[in-house]
Amino acid sequence: MRYDVVLTTYAVLSKEIHHATPPPDRITRHEKRHERRVSPLVGISWWRVCLDEAQMVESGVSQAARVARLIPRCNAWAVSGTPLRKDVQDLFGLLLFLRCDYFANKSAVWNYMDKASFKSIFGQIALRHSKDKIREELHLPPQKRVVITVPFTAIEDQHYTELMRQMCDACWLTPEGLPLQEGRDTSDPEVIERMREWLVRLRQTCLHANVGRKNRKAFGARNGALRTVHEVLEIMIEQNDTAWKSETREMIMNKIKAGHVMAFAGNIEHRARSALTLYEEALKDTQSYVESCRAELLLERQKLGKSTSEQPDVLTTEDHDTSLDTDSEDLGRIPVLCKSLRLFLELEHACKFFIATTYHQIKEKEDLDNPKSDEYRRYEELEVSWYEQAKAIRRELLKESKGRAQQQMAKISSRKPYYQISKIVDLPGLGGIEARSILETMDNISDYLNAQAKQIHTWRMKIVDILLLPLVDDDDDKDITGDEYDDSLKSQDELYVYIMALRTLIADRGAAVNGLRDTLVEHEMKAAEKQAKGKESNGEERGHAPELVIEVANIRRKLQAGLTGGSLKGVVSGVRSLITGLQWRADSGDTRAKAELDVNQKHLARIQTIATQQIKTIAELEKEQDMFRGTMNQRLEYYRQFQRISDTVAKWKEDLDETFDQSEFDKFESLHAQKKDLVAVLKTKNTYLTHLRTENQNEAMPECIICQDVIEIGVITTCGHKYCKECINTWWHQHRTCPICKKRLSSSEFKDISFKPKDMKVQEETTQVPNTSSTATQASTPGDAGTSIYSSMSETMLKEIKMIDLPSSYGTKIDSIARHLLYLRANDPGAKSIIFSQFSDFLVVLRGALRSFKIGASSIVERDGIARFKSDPSVETFLLDAKSDSSGLNLVNATYVFLCEPLINPALELQAIARVHRIGQKRAIYEISVKRRLEHMGRGSGGAADAVRKKEEDGEDDEIMGQDGGRGERVKEESLDQANSKELRDASVKQLLRKKGDGEIVKECDLWKCLFGRPRTAAVARPVVERDVGRLERVTAAVSRATDGRF
Fold it and tell me: Ranges of Polar residues compositional bias (predicted)?
């Protein structure tokens, strides 16, 4: 033999299965003509067979595993870095290959084997080496680790703070982690599970606002485009604005309801005057918001370049004209602002209407019997004036829907006269015996279509008459009763029935022309007739205008009874068949057939003309039907809005209360006070978010008008003015007003802001060289044993990275990673990086951002993603998530590993690092952990890895971890390898992950520390003890006072 060693693959082993196993012993009729080829793998006795990545044969039943067992050999080696993935069953395939069949095939042995026996058996057939044990032989380059802390921007910080508040509310906890309810223990499984879900969402938010299903849903786009930070801010402003105005409306409504309670108090003499005060207060608040909404709408119109006016309409037709082919994006925020303005106008209408009603009650109830007196005339003028103001607002509210309805009505009116259905003339008698049946059929169809045309015209005119009825409120002198919507229901029901009947006749006409029946229309007509014939005593309604439904159904049935001749299409088909037969006979010389052929051809031409004309007629009728239906819907929408406005000013009660309902009044006053405080908070938040928008556009540092110094730690008021926090506190305690605009302020109308510059920080850790000893372990490369495993990053390098400009911003974390990658492209050409995250959603978001930054990337889930990363120079990064099984993956061509978030379970992080720091790596490995200041997670894995991972950021406040800053224990590279080997050995990566890509599993003991920066016992047990001790002290003091006789 020429070679001593043969290398092959598992794919080759699988293909050799048919040549390695002997064929079955079968009796054949003839001798074999060709000898069966025997695989050289089984034809040679090998001294040693060595399987690398032996976990590939762990099942023992694959083709590769079967061939591997059949290879003759004296010695067998199985090499694997992950011999166990799930449980001990993974060892059976390896034992079969090693020919330890007794252990592999005896289930009883495994059922009764203890740990000592297992260790004794496998200690004889297995040898385990870890990286730290053979460091001298591997000569691996050192690992250099840098922890980069990037702070939140003000926008991201505001969003995160709001999520933390929502988390505390959802988990029934205070911001300090204390229980809000006495009866709900913090060890409740529901509380723990909710905290886990919120922790996942908060950690996803630290990556990007689009990561996670719930985060995307909160921003109104589950699978929408990737949003930049500024787009996220606009959504936050819009959501807060919606919540602010909604709570404001609730606040005003509670004030109006309190006025209702006062107005219906039968035992209060001047109840109308008392209610008037409350209505006027509600009106004052409402008008301020109406003016604000009008101003916002005017600015938005100017921004979009639309027509503007001093008093913009609630919603003009040009904004929502369906006939215009414009995108909804062209309208900007106009629809949202119009809706807000409309809701506040409804409140203003209600306030003015109730004020007018109150003046009417004062005029009628307070001894003003003389209609000629000045006071009586004054109240009457006030009443009329306020009713006119309410009427003007009502017309403004109805202007848009009324304009749409009138526009549709104008279309109907302009179409007069409507499409005229031409009468079908009977076919002329041209003689001929063969055409007699055709003429009879055509006469029957013609009579049916002509009679139906008359009925269609009748019902069409009835529809037009109803649709052209003037809308209520067209006449300025007509009083509004509040029952306009109900009054229109009768005519609306008749209109609905006539349109349904017209649709049915058009469908019948189509069946008479084309021979195709519309089963859906027929079903609707039959169902309506059946419902109309029902009785109301059984609790079911009879539908729209039941008598009219029965009438039109009978008329339609009578028309249908007159049709016995099929359809025009059938007649055409019959004539063509007849012509075909006559043509054959005429070609044979039959004179009569030739005459008959000429007659039938003329009939065919005439019938085809009639059929074409009727198809056109049906198309025109369907267009008119669509126009009628559209007009009906617009009129119905107008009356629906009219009725909604009427409902807002409906009577509070039919009769007066005998006595003043104090409890009901106090309830509405309390709700009004609560809503007022909430409105103040939301208004302040809106001012703050708007300030963030302008701050992003203007980088100038603001000055405090009180101390004339630059503001670092300050506050912003609801009126939009900024001051130093200490300065405004001193001022407010003395004046309770804004120093600039003199607006009176409450404590809830301040929002903390900070202009103190925040910057990313680099945490560098160096090994502390211990006292040398004779047994000191050497470093992985020649040199001092105390070589640092953590790399320093100079201020110059950090400044160069920060100075890299990006075309857009997707958040500080994504921007920081992108800047580092662009820096590596410029300063370390050809270097490749692995980006690791436990959330696959984030890698999707990051992939989109990297694409916009022109940075090539591939991932493990892509087809040929690994091969492209290894061979394609344009692919600079490889995206790896914790959920993907990356064991055995070799990516030694990468030099940098970016860990996007800190991990509580170090085994997940070590899996990513192990893809690069392995045999074959020639360059130093840089592990760059990109953290937020809100992501300093506690490491709760225990064991040797705890000593390695116990690293805290230095002295910076932490909203998700608290203030547990401080330097961790300084470790050497040898200690790191020992701890990493133990961590990977003890932890199963798959068991550390949640389902559906929701990241790692967090233990209950780590949960409280991650969210509140302290263990649960320290946060929860203390208040319970204090409460019990306080109760005991109070009881003791009471007993002491009773003993001393002080009661």
Answer: 765-781
Peptide bond before residue 417 is cis, with ω within 30 degrees of 0: yes
Q: Where are the alpha helices (DSSP H) in 751-811?
A: 795-802
Separation between Cα atoms, residue 994 and residue 424, nearest integer Å: 75
In whole angstroms, give the CA distance from residue 122 to residue 513. Answer: 89
Average pLDDT, the chain: 76
Q: 111-137: buried (b, 16+ CB within 10 Å) or exposed (e) per residue?
A: eeeeeeeeeeebeeeeeeeebbeebee
Could you list the residue range(s) of the whole structural domain that residue 404 is in? 229-311+331-412+656-674
Residue 353: predicted pLDDT: 93
Torsion of CA 845, 851, 854, 858, to 10 degrees: 90
C-beta contacts of 303-307 below 8 A and 24+ residues apart: 303/332, 304/330, 304/331, 304/332, 304/334, 306/334
Do residues 890 and 857 share a domain? Answer: yes
3-state SS, residue 49: strand
Residue 786 covered by a domain: no
Residue 996 one-letter amino acid:
K
d(CA 105, CA 109): 9
List beta partners, residue 930: 148
Domains in the chain: how many in total? 5
Based on the domain organization, do 763 and 853 belong to the same domain?
Answer: yes
Q: Work out the widest C-alpha separation in the chain, in whole angstroms.
A: 143
| 771, pLDDT greater than 50 | no
Based on the domain organization, do 394 and 431 belong to the same domain?
Answer: no
Residue 878, strand partner residues = 834, 858
Q: State whether 477 and 616 are in the same domain.
A: yes
d(CA 481, CA 391): 12
Q: Is the CB of residue 568 less than 8 Å from the CB of residue 590?
A: no
pLDDT digits (tens, 9 = 90+) for 440-495: 888 888 999 999 999 999 998 999 988 888 887 644 555 555 555 555 677 888 88
Give this prediction's pTM: 0.61
Q: Which long-range contacts (CB under 8 A, 24 or more apart) does 191-199 make?
A: 192/1004, 192/1007, 194/170, 195/167, 195/171, 195/1007, 195/1008, 195/1011, 196/1002, 196/1007, 198/163, 198/166, 198/167, 198/170, 198/171, 198/1011, 199/1002, 199/1007, 199/1010, 199/1011
| Contact call for residues 965 and 922 (beta carbons, < 8 A) | no
Q: Which residues pair with 145 in a beta bridge?
A: 927
* 8 A C-beta contact, residue 357 and residue 264: no
Q: CATH no. for residue 175?
A: 3.40.50.300
Mapping DSSP onto H, E and C, the string for 271-300 reads: HHHHHHHHHHHHHHHHHHHHHHHHHHHHHH
CB 77 within 8 A of CB 48: yes
For residue 143, the SS3 value is strand
Which is it for the CA torsion 280, 281, 284, 289, positive or negative?
negative
Do residues 723 and 711 make contact, with C-beta atoms less than 8 angstroms apart?
yes
User: How does pLDDT run across 173-183, given as a tens digit for each residue?
Assistant: 887 777 877 66
Distances, alpha carbon 563 to alpha carbons 28, 446, 603, in Å: 79, 9, 20
601-626 confidence digits (pLDDT tens): 888 888 899 999 999 999 999 998 99
- CA–CA dist 535, 529 (Å, integer): 12
How far apart are alpha carbons 908 and 990 in whole angstroms? 9
Which of 685, 190, 941 lies closest to 198, judged by CA?
Answer: 190
Report CA Rg, the chain. 43
931 lies in the same domain as 798: yes
Rounded distance between C-alpha atoms, residue 612 and residue 622, angstroms: 16
Sign of the Cα torsion 953, 957, 959, 965 reads positive
Q: Is the dihedral of CA 207, 213, 219, 223 positive or negative?
A: positive
Instruction: Answer left, alpha or beta for residue 567, where phi above 0 means left and psi between -120 and 50 means alpha.
Output: beta
Question: Where is mean pLDDT largest: 118-132, 249-263, 882-896?
Answer: 249-263
316 found inside a domain: no
The torsion angle over the Cα atoms of residues 586, 590, 593 and 599, rounded to 10 degrees, is 70
